[in-house]
Amino acid sequence: MNYTQLSQTIQDYAETDEQLFVDNIPNFVQFAEERIYNAVQIPAIRKNQIGNFTAGDHYLALPDDYLASFSLAVIDADGNYEYLLDKDVNFIRQSYPTANDQGVPRYYAQFKPYTYLIGPTPDDSYQVELHYYYYPESIVTAGTSWLGDNFETALVYGALREAVIFQKGEQDMVAYYEQKYQESLALLKDLGDGKDRRSAYRDGQLRMPIPGPVR
After folding, report:
1. What is the pLDDT averaged over residues 200-204?
2. Please, what sign has the CA dihedral across residues 26, 29, 31, 34?
């Protein structure tokens, strides 16, 4: 489902093409996207970036679209990954009091919105890989998205909940669309937080328990 189809579906469900309502459909959709992206760890919210530490600088600048970290790793000359441990700023400050405490980085801490404090201070321009969480471009501006292509029900019902609130609809309608949204979200969580993190070789295939005969 692309954005044009999504917008029309919202109007059809709401049974209105009133201009003020139509003008606010992008808001309904973006509010729904934000809720979904904060509820389920789907592949679409993950991103990797490779860069370099600066020797003698115990800060690492983060990408503009950064929201949270999945992992941070130093990559050595042989391509081996050494993952840094996430710590508090206080821990790093106490363990490495000055920028002159240098070595291969072992720890990182969120120092301010787009900056990590690194400990110890890098003594070389080591290659570093950041695996992080971000908001993908909205289907509103991109025209298509992973959600629209793969799980439009969560997007539709999430947006319709926002639309009913905008229309000052009855509470039972708000509750109805919230329920439909939660049902869709549960299926999405089964995919994003379940199936995407399983290996049939290691975990076996998913099986539904079947009740035995009544005795």
Report:
1. 46
2. negative
